[in-house]
Amino acid sequence: MRDVVAAAVLLLGAVAALVGGRGLPFGSVAAPGPGFFPRALAAGLAGVAALLLARALVAGRAPATPPAMPGARFRLGAVVGALFAFTVVLDWLGFVAATFLLMVVLFRVVERHRWTIVVGESAAAAVASHVLFKTWLGVRLPPGPWGF
């Protein structure tokens, strides 16, 4: 019953956000207006809430919670700590180096990949995100001491 109520409240909130965002210009995908993101997010949330509500009504009970994985709290702490450290060193090291270090922590500590794979994956992720944000989207990124 709790799942039905929670999903229904979530669905009502999403519908309220959709109705409230009607007054903002939507724009288009190529040129989004101020109402594009709130309405798209509310529509997605409404869809997920509707699925959750249907699932809760069909199941009639909450799904069983899977047991926690060993070391899950440590990995969660590592992710939160790595994201905090990323924000602290971003301006000082620059986007590419800070992203590389963040990905090293995520791939090595959280996912436990081998070091050779960690370095390659981290470098690829840092370069790909730099190309995506700086080159394609034109976002200004902190250059760091290396100038890129």
Structural summary, described in words:
It is a single chain. The chain has 148 residues and is mainly alpha-helical. It folds into two domains: 58 residues; 65 residues, no CATH class. 70% of the residues lie in helices and 0% in strands.
Question: How confident overall, as mean pLDDT?
Answer: 85
Number of helices: 5
Sheet having the most strands = none
Total count of strands: 0
β-strand amount: under 5%
Helix/strand order, N-terminal first: HHHHH
Structurally, the number of domains stands at: 2
C-alpha-based Rg, rounded: 21 Å
Q: Judging from the principal axes of the Cα atoms, what is the shape?
A: flat
Percent helix:
55-70%
- Protein structure class: mainly alpha
Poorly predicted spans: none
| Beginning-to-end CA distance, first to last residue | 54 Å
Which keywords apply here?
2 domains, mainly alpha, 148 residues
Could you outline the blueprint of secondary structure elements for this entry?
Blueprint: H1 2-20, H2 36-59, H3 72-93, H4 95-110, H5 115-136
Helix pairs in contact: 1-2, 3-4, 4-5
Give a short synopsis of this structure:
The chain is mostly helical and 148 residues long. It has helices at residues 2-20, 36-59, 72-93, 95-110, 115-136.
